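Hi R.,

Here's the chain you asked about this morning:
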Amino acid sequence: MRQLISSLTGIGILWAIGLLIFVAKLPPTNNMAPNQADGIVVYTGGGGARIVAAMDIFEKGNGKRLLISGVHPNTSRARLSEFWTGDPDRFDCCVDLGREAMSTKGNASELKNWASTHAFTQIVLVTSEYHMPRAILETSSKMPEAKITPYAVSSGYLDSDGKPTSLKSGLRLAGEYSKYLLAHFKGFIDSIGA
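And here is the predicted structure, written out as tokens:
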């Protein structure tokens, strides 16, 4: 019993150290347009901040098309157009809505199909900074041949010193770190089975 408690304590300490490293290495949020790419994708979630950021860089001429991945079935195209401040014709012609994805892995699959349809190999990926590591991991695993450029959006979970803004924010970051570890583990298992 003592050995089990010691093992669990050790695992807990390693997990906590890993969490601190994970948070410290989160990408800085972007305030400059990324380099030109074939397409832009935004993985939805966290309110409308991610969508607004993706639309902003797309509106400025970056990318040929924009994919909003993981759109809720009840969210209309007209509702999303309310976030758009540019030329309506560009929104009508070149903003695609993906409604199949229910998870980050689903986002990556949706992106892969969309990019393949349009022969895109250079993608700007927009999501929150805390979600970016797992988003890149899942996307790179589905699209190893593509060049994925991260564009991180502030989630509001971190203050200017990179520390959680509240207990709730800290718990959200801890949950995301656990999902990131699980995605790594699943990727490792899949590579063994391949």
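One quick note: The chain has one domain: 2-193.

Cheers,
M.
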